[in-house]
Amino acid sequence: MKTSTERILTTHVGSLPRPHRLIGLLRKKDQGESYDQLALISVWRLQ
Predict the structure, then answer these.
(1) What is the DSSP track for 15-39?
(2) 22, 29, 40, 47: which sits with the fewest CB atoms below 10 Å from its CB?
């Protein structure tokens, strides 16, 4: 990999993989649907 002193080089684009349970909770939250906030926090903390 090239090195650079002027910028940070990354090995991926976008977001990192997320567990299916977290994706479902985030989707509900983004769409304004009701979701279990405690479940979202507990799954998020496992990251």
Answers:
(1) PPP--HHHHHHHHHHHTT----HHH
(2) 47
